[in-house]
Predict the structure.
Amino acid sequence: MFQSLLNAWRLPDLRKKLLFTALIIAIYRLGCYIPVPGIDMQSVQEVFNTGGVFDFYDLFTGGALQQMAVFAMGIMPYITASIIIQLLTMVSPRLEALMKEGPSGQKKVNQYTRYFTAGLALIEAIGFVFLFRSYGAFPPDAMGNSTFTATNVILVVVNLTVGAILVMWLGELVTQRGIGNGISLMIFASIVSRLPSGLWKLFQMNPGIWIAMGVIALLVVMAVIYITQGQRRIPVQYAKRVVGRKVYGGQSTYLPLRINMAGVIPVIFASSVLLFPVTLAQMVPWGWTQKLAEIFSPSSWWYIGAEVILIVLFTYFYTAVQFNPIDQADNLKKYGGFVPGIRPGRPTAAYLDRVLTRITFPGALFLAAIVLLPTVLYTVMDVQFYFGGTSLLIVVGVALDTMQQMEAQLLMRHYEGFLK
């Protein structure tokens, strides 16, 4: 591995990409510590002391939201906009046609996503301002005058909105000129930035406990790698075609179907839906909202059961968005490919759908088990697991994807890669 890293550093173009990626991530982390003017930080802390969706949101910003920094909203508006645009392609014929037009259509869809991101960032910034106001984030000045004025509100909203747009731009720069997916790497950097504080809290416990927790974390990482890399390979045979005096096709290959094709998206969806009652109770402290928040509190069995069900449902839903068996069967038929023993066309689509349905179920259960692991450890061992299942899934997944891209760059130049 160290030799592979040395080989990667020796390549001038790969070295430039690595340095550029590191520079952009450093700029992103710097923006997470520049506070927005006009807000009382101590009052903002009270929002996070009450729990809710903001703790989960703050995980993806590396603590920037809790510090009310310029990059407080992080990359979440862009992720939300991207997911919504992907879902709209299933119901909008125009967007679906654009996605199939190639690079030009994809460029247009990306433009829609950017506009949608700016709109979502503006709406979220206004929501944060009025929410934090209820916690006293705009205290009176020395003369006793209110600081919740139109000028201050516009200043805060513009700072947060521009910060979210800037983060989106930085992520796209990394994707275009750096190594790996820029959006994923920024989430990776945000989560890893909390690693030192988590380790410090862990080492303050009994040595036997933190050793056991370290072993559990290692086993979880190994399991995540195994499931993330796991795939079902569907054999595909291409028929021979004679064009002039040359014979094309005839080779055998395979179609890889990943066990966890949806990634961490189902976990994010399920957690956001289940934390909504707690957030609603914070914003609207009525009787029925408080009762709903108690029923679906993160420590209740109702919450655990609902989270497992939602993760399974969202895993199937997002897998259907990512992989269309009918399109795959049509593409195979168009290029003369077929699955041995299966007729081309609709029978092939039905076969792929049946296989994907079967392998997605264990992948969905694995996602639910990883997410519920911290809750189980806290209930059984009465210890706090500072590296949540969602965090481990994202960190390991992004690290694997980045390593695979670096390995592809090395193999193109006849160097041995990272993955043996």
Notes: The radius of gyration is 24 Å.
